[in-house]
Write a structure and sequence with these properties.
A four-stranded antiparallel beta sheet has the order 4-5-6-7, covered by helices on one side. It has a four-stranded antiparallel beta sheet with strand order 11-12-13-14, with helices on one face. A three-stranded antiparallel beta sheet has the order 1-3-2. Strand 2 and strand 3 (75-77) form a beta hairpin. The chain has helices spanning 12-17, 22-33, 41-48, 53-62, 79-90, 152-168, 220-223, 228-235; strands at residues 38-39, 68-70, 75-77, 102-107, 114-120, 123-128, 134-138, 179-185, 203-209, 215-219, 257-262, 265-273, 276-283, 288-294. The protein starts with 11 loop residues before the first helix and ends in a 5-residue tail after the last strand. The chain is an alpha+beta fold and 299 residues long. The chain folds into three domains: 12-90, Arc Repressor Mutant, subunit A; 102-217, no CATH class; 222-294, no CATH class. The model has no long low-confidence stretch (mean pLDDT 87). Helix 2 crosses helix 3.
Length: 299
């Protein structure tokens, strides 16, 4: 059986050039709102408010099946069209958010100091002023709609969890391309001249998209937080992983994450719940090779 061949059906400039006209954007929105995201020619024309049927037919023809496909009964929104409208609704292309620093009630998992939240140019940051602990999340402005500013840190963390989950599953969160994962020292992902020596001994995860080149970096604790062994360990001790903020599992020091060896890579991260500790060990491709539970005061 021959391998399937995925090819570019249309030039990217031509595909997005279709969207240069407001009428075509309205067509996409109308189909988004239609039952089953399908509509007849007349239903679409009425929704858009264009009287000239010939001109409207021209606009529909420019989609050429990329964002809108013709059916026996009319037109339907394609997956690409739905993704585009979703991006517009998210505010990724059309909205901005101006918010002051939000002081958080949560303490830094590394040093115990208070955490704070900032947002700038689509990037949310949850960090500590007293130590290097920091989490970055790419979050579109629309994700914060309907929430008070005090809730922004947890909204950003939930959105960041989606980014990590998608990368861990092998799909680029931006373009759906294939992600290649590696485990490497945290120091190699930090862009600074005065990186402390201990940072070289902290393992972290890097995901590289083979299509668009996007890079996602996440600490080992966050990356493995939804692994079945980690979820089960916490569940048995009364902790719902899905309900916990992402920074609860951050492992950015040698007390919680460490290299067992470098060649071949073996790295481990430790989780604590109910007085017990779970150690999860992975290889360089992030495959879990061992899990051990050390009973503590709760065991």
């Amino acid at each position: 059986m021959d391998e399937p061949d995925i090819v570019d059906a249309v030039d990217a400039d031509d595909a997005f050039g279709v969207l240069s006209d407001e009428t075509r954007i309205e067509v996409l929105r109308a189909l988004w709102d239609a039952d089953d995201r399908e509509a007849t020619f007349s239903e679409l024309r009425d929704a858009v408010g264009m009287r000239d049927s010939g001109q409207f037919n021209y606009h529909l023809g420019t989609f050429d099946g990329q964002f809108v496909a013709e059916t026996d009964d009319g037109y339907r929104l394609t997956t690409a069209g739905a993704q585009l409208v979703g991006a517009l609704l998210s505010g990724a292309y059309t909205q901005t958010l101006d918010v002051d620093t939000v002081e958080m009630a949560d303490d830094c998992p590394r040093c115990g100091s208070s955490l704070s939240f900032t947002y700038d140019d689509g990037t949310a940051e949850i960090g500590c002023d007293d130590c290097p602990h920091v989490n970055h999340f790419l979050v579109p402005p629309g994700a914060f709609a309907g929430y008070d500013a005090a809730a922004y840190p947890r909204v950003a963390a939930r959105y960041g969890r989606k980014f990590v989950r998608s990368s861990r599953d092998g799909f680029c969160p931006l373009c759906d391309g294939r992600m290649a994962e590696t485990v490497l020292p945290l120091a190699s992902t930090v862009e600074a001249d005065d990186v402390p020596a201990w940072v070289e001994n902290v393992p972290t995860c890097r995901f590289d998209c083979e299509r668009c080149g996007e890079v996602v970096v996440a600490d080992l604790g966050t990356t493995l937080a939804e692994h079945p062994a980690v979820v089960s360990f916490h569940h048995e001790r009364g902790v719902d992983v899905s309900g916990e903020p992402l920074w609860r599992f951050t492992a950015l020091d040698t007390d919680s994450a460490r290299f067992e060896r470098r060649d071949p890579v073996r790295a481990s991260v430790t989780y604590e719940a109910g007085g017990d500790e779970l150690a999860v060990t992975v290889d360089e491709s992030l495959s879990v090779v061992e899990t051990t539970i050390e009973p503590g005061t709760g065991g």
